[in-house]
Amino acid sequence: MTRILIIEDEQDLAGLVDYNLRAAGFETETANTGAGGLARARATPPDLVLLDLMLPDVAGGEVLRMLKQDPELRKTSVIIVSAKGQESDRVQGLELGADDYVVKPFSVRELLLRVKAVLRRTDAEEGPAAVLGAGDIVLDTSRHQVRVKGEEVVLTALEFRLLRTLLERSDRVQTREVLLSDVWGIQAEIHTRTVDTHIKRLREKLGPAGDIIETVRGVGYKLSPP
Predict the structure, then answer these.
(1) Is 220 a residue whose pLDDT tops 70?
(2) What is the mean predicted confidence (pLDDT) over 177-198?
(3) Coil, strand or helix at 53
(4) How many other β-carbons are positioned within 10 Å of the β-carbon of residue 62?
(5) How far apart are CA 179 and CA 219, in angstroms?
(6) Angle formed by the axes of helices 11-23 and 108-125, to 10°?
(7) What are 102's strand-pairing partners?
(8) Which of 177, 174, 166 is nearest to 203 (CA)?
(9) Distance in angstroms (rounded) separating the CA atoms of residues 48 and 81
């Protein structure tokens, strides 16, 4: 059963979300602080986290950063659920590595649809096993593992999905809009440098091998095998 961790300090809202997720067939757990949520996630890694940004102890952005840096939790999907609905807030959340961003107040139906969409993308990644490579980079989908010159490189779920997409579409230019749609599953209705930020981080983690990810000025990116 898919397990969802709700990190939300508004107890009435947490209870409402918890009830509806359980009714939809999910296993749930709740925490009303950032520290408590991190502890629960580390004790039993969830498939997805619903994360409020304005928590009473640790800021939600810091919780997200810690989740993405933990080797045991980096594959966990995260949806930010926050009253901070400005475009800059949404952009920042996506650039931190969130899979989606839902603004309060929201309809429970919308939230369930967003949850299912993120989980579908995760399931799609668990499809037929494949080993993809270019230059010194080897990506193993079955192990969710990336190696550069034989050494493992730890990527977040989004970075892994981004690299996999570029490898699968080698030598084909991918616009920022296409990458936002296919990797993040969102439409480019907001101006965001999310793709640029993640490409930069991906290149840094891959080291010199990341140079095969080329910037196509004014368009997007292309992976060009040596």
Answers:
(1) yes
(2) 75
(3) coil
(4) 15
(5) 11
(6) 60
(7) 81
(8) 166
(9) 12
Q: What CA–CA distances, in Å, run from 89 to 70, 92, 161?
A: 24, 5, 23
Interior CA angle at 218 toward 213 and 224, to 5°?
20
Q: What is the pLDDT of residues 99-146, one digit of tens each?
A: 889 999 999 998 999 899 888 877 655 555 688 999 999 999 877 889
- What average pLDDT does this structure show over 139-160? 88
Confidence band for 154, pLDDT divided at 50, 70 and 90: confident
Distance CA(89)–CA(60), nearest Å, equals 12
Mean pLDDT of 53-77: 90
Tell me the two tokens of residue 115: 């949850």
Note the pTM of the prediction, 2 decimals: 0.70
| Residue owning tokens 């400005």 | 86
Q: Report the amino acid identity of residue 63.
A: V
Would you state the pLDDT for residue 177? Answer: 86
Buried b (16+ CB within 10 A) or exposed e, 161-174: bbbbbbbebeeeeb
> How far apart (Å, rounded) are the C-alpha atoms in residues 112 and 102?
11
Distance CA 77, CA 84 (A): 20
Helix H or strand E segment including 43: helix 34-43
What is the chain's alpha carbon radius of gyration, rounded to the nearest angstrom? 18
**50/34 Cα distance (integer angstroms):** 12
